[in-house]
Amino acid sequence: MTVQIACLLGPTASGKTAAALALAAREPIEIISVDSALVYREMDIGTAKPSAAELASVPHHLIDIVDPADAYSAAEFHDDALRLVGEILARGRRPVLVGGTMLYYKALTTGLNDLPAADPELRARLDAEASRDGWPAMHARLAEVDPVTAARLPENDSQRIQRALEIYLLSGQQMSALLDAPRRRPKTEYRFMPIALEPSDRAVLHERIAHRFDMMLGNGLIEEVERLKARGDLDTSMPSMRCVGYRQVWEYLDGETDRATMRDKGVFATRQLCKRQLTWLRSIPERAIVDCCASDATDRVLALMASLG
Questions:
Q1: Is 12 annotated as a binding residue?
Q2: 131, 162, 180 — which closes off a domain?
Q3: pLDDT tens for residues 33-76?
Q4: How far apart are alpha carbons 168 and 179 in whole angstroms?
Q5: Share of the chain above pLDDT 70, in %
Q6: What is the pLDDT of residues 266-299, one digit of tens each?
Q7: Hey, where's the site called Interaction with substrate tRNA on this chain (predicted)?
Q8: Do 107 and 219 reside in the same domain of the chain?
Q9: What digits encode the pLDDT tens for the residues 82-138?
Q10: Same domain for 65 and 200?
């Protein structure tokens, strides 16, 4: 028998956490986070991690599971999420997936490509070359070996340029070709049912994003990044420090920008993340859409959740 699993998806600042907590007040659920930033310990403010009280009010999973010096892949999420769904159902509770990392959701529902795992030594070498030559030069290098991938990436998109070069150097194959290859379809008895919180007016979401980033700064985001920086084992090439907000504050602490510029760059980067998340969401035709700008958005989510049983 196929079991329906509710998935509450949406861009940053769309109200996913509030809706999930409202559902938790009604029925015994456990939340599986679908968020690549929330996996990291010591990163609470800039990731908008649920508060201690919120985490205590309902069981949460895949939050605070990885040190910022380490990586966590979509393949690991796929395996962990399927395991957790089974364990939660066995306890007689309802698993609900909540988050906005669409790569994780796609890995879970449509399968994984056979991409090589990250290689820290190779990444360090590529970062050193980029420090010497600049990311536009690395982008030009990528264009020589994988023009399809290079054509869709801005020349300063360091994270994706590095990953594409890493894949080519490790496998001898273009990332674009590997992504076009048939996926390993997940074998599961679950049917994941996406409910998407999307804005009818993107300007409203942009205002929320700016307000939330200002709140993060007021709540100690700069001090949080200072503590992470003081560890001495982190740098901006790592996935954790590439999370929106952290890289911009790190640059500010390094004296590369002033506070106002850091704030504006942080807001802009968050809006760009939101745009990418919405693009991913629109590629899921089976999703049920709730206007996150509506005053009764949470009630609408709860009604849809009830319809899924």
A1: yes
A2: 180
A3: 999 999 999 999 999 999 999 999 999 999 999 999 998 988 89
A4: 12
A5: 97
A6: 999 999 999 999 999 999 999 999 999 999 999 9
A7: 101, 123
A8: yes
A9: 999 999 999 999 999 999 999 999 999 987 777 888 888 899 899 999 999 999 999
A10: yes
- Say whether 110 counts as a known binding-site residue: no
pLDDT one-digit tens code per residue, 134-164: 999 999 999 999 999 999 998 988 889 999 9
**pLDDT tens digit string along 227-278?**
999 999 999 888 999 999 999 999 999 999 999 999 999 999 999 999 999 9
The total number of structural domains in the chain stands at 2
Say if CB 37 and CB 43 are below 8 A apart. yes
14 is in an annotated binding site: yes
Alpha-carbon distance of 108 to 292, in angstroms, equals 24
Q: What is the DSSP string of 89-158?
A: HHTT-EEEEEE--HHHHHHHHH-B--PPPP-HHHHHHHHHHHHHH-HHHHHHHHHHH-HHHHHHS-TT-H
Please tell me whether 309 is known to bind a ligand. no
**Among the three residues 159, 180, 201, which one is the final residue of a domain in this structure?**
180
Beta sheet of 3-9, edge-to-edge order: 60-61, 29-34, 94-99, 3-9, 190-198, 288-291
Check the annotation: does 220 bind a ligand: no
Say yes or no: 215 and 259 in one domain. yes
Q: Cα(163)–Cα(277) distance, rounded to whole angstroms?
A: 19
Q: Does 265 carry a binding-site annotation? A: no
Question: Residue 95 gets which letter from DSSP?
Answer: E
Amino acid symbol at 56 = A
My answer on whether 206 and 174 are in the same domain is no
Tell me if 100 is assigned to a ligand binding site.
Answer: no
Would you tell me how many other CB atoms lie within 10 Å of the CB of residue 210? 18
Query: 176 and 260: one domain?
Result: no
Q: 255: annotated binding-site residue?
A: no
Question: Buried b vs exposed e over 163-199: b needs ≥16 C-beta within 10 Å?
Answer: bbbbbbeeeebbbbebeeeeeeebebebebbbbbbbb
Helix axis angle, 221-230 to 246-253, nearest 10° = 70
Give residue for tokens 């907000």: 245
